[in-house]
Amino acid sequence: MRNGMRRRGLTVAAALLTGVLALTGCGGGGGDDDKPGDQDGSGSSEQQEADQAAEDADTSDAVITITPDDGADNVGINQDVQVSVEGGTIDEVTMTATETGAEVTGTLSEDKTSWQPDAQLERATQYTLAVQASDSEQREAHQEATFTTVSPENSFIGYFTPEDGSTVGVGMPVSLNFDKPITEKAAVEGGVHITASSGQEVVGHWFGDSRLDFRPEDYWQANTTVTVELDWDGVEGAEGVTGVQDRTFSFTVGRSQVSTVDAAAHQMQVVRDGEVLRTVPISSGSDENPTYNGQMVISEKLLETRMDGATVGFTDDDGEGEYDIPDVPHAMRLSTSGTFVHGNYWAADSVFGSVNTSHGCIGLNDTQGADDDSTDAAWFYEESMIGDVVIVVNSPDEQMQPDNGLNGWNMNWTDWKAGSAL
């Protein structure tokens, strides 16, 4: 009951109660503090509407959207982070690595309605993103989000050969090596797009779960430009493991150089663009340690390098390497297992062109120090590039395995295509 009714005391007859309640229901009685529609003390409905109108007048029409959501994790490191605004324009975006405070630079669209980072983000890193925008009345809107990028444990990386922008020989495949085993091979292979200016068909082949090579049926045509797109961002490579790369690289195939080593004749014929450039006397693997036959691709060039037999299984009864030469000159790798074509300064000049004495490498006459440009080894080193082909024939050894180095040419085209997951 209202205050005015309390003054009548508690002895009011029950018969009058209905009238009192009816009077109370009409708002009668009561003191000056009681106002129609304001029983909760919050002000009149007109006042509430006025307050809401004032609040609305101060609210910006700019609506900010930050992707990903606040608190998100396993965020991609390429295109997953974006800012957009409707009903206004972006004034300022600040994105920092939460732990270090390092700022991430970004690009604002010409119409100032969107923003995204300029470069790939770091994995397993928490970032904070703060945005300010304004509408046409210069009323500001603000929004923040904090999120964490995908961890190395939940993502895969593919390391590629050859290098971006390099010029290589006609035998160079595109070789992709993954930091984790890939089970969803079709999805990962399908994210690789290769185009060649020569128009040659390029097909992938899986060597196990962590390596994927691409090549055409025959060697690349000379002077071909090859472009490779890796579209793996967000692609599932295995359960709980997604790709984070979204990039393009390209390389150029230079002149054609294919050198053929005849192990029985102790000679190497160097052919460039179909013409014999020079025939060089060599010494290949001995009868006890013959050189592999087959097509091999130069994958590394070293002006000087150490060669220790113990690292490739050539040891004596005491477990020591059968040889340890600290300064082998003009060395070019042909296989992962240790086959090289290199200079040899420790053998007599008469060895080259007449007898095979090595542990499986192809030796060319040279001098110690790798500083004599007149030797056969120095000449071949200068005339060769990564990706050039060296073919060994007439050796008593077996053929080089396709996955030993960049040597997939030792597999016929039918078998090569059968190794594709697509």
Automatic annotation (TrEMBL):
One of its GO terms (biological process) is peptidoglycan-protein cross-linking. Residues 27-60 are annotated as: Disordered. Pathway: Glycan biosynthesis; Cell wall biogenesis; peptidoglycan biosynthesis. Residues 1-24 form the signal peptide. The keyword NADP does not apply. The active site is at H342 (proton donor/acceptor), C361 (nucleophile). InterPro entries: Big_10, LD-transpeptidase, LD_TPept_cat_dom, Transpep_catalytic_dom. Residues 257-393 form the L,D-TPase catalytic domain. One of its GO terms (molecular function) is acyltransferase activity. The keyword Cell membrane applies. Residues 48-59 have a biased composition (Acidic residues). GO terms for cellular component: extracellular region. Keywords: Acyltransferase, Cell membrane, Cell shape, Cell wall biogenesis/degradation, Lipoprotein, Membrane, Palmitate, Peptidoglycan synthesis, Signal, Transferase. PROSITE patterns: LD_TPASE (PS52029), PROKAR_LIPOPROTEIN (PS51257). PANTHER family: L,D-TRANSPEPTIDASE, L,D-TRANSPEPTIDASE YCIB-RELATED. This is L,D-TPase catalytic domain-containing protein. It comes from Streptomyces hoynatensis.
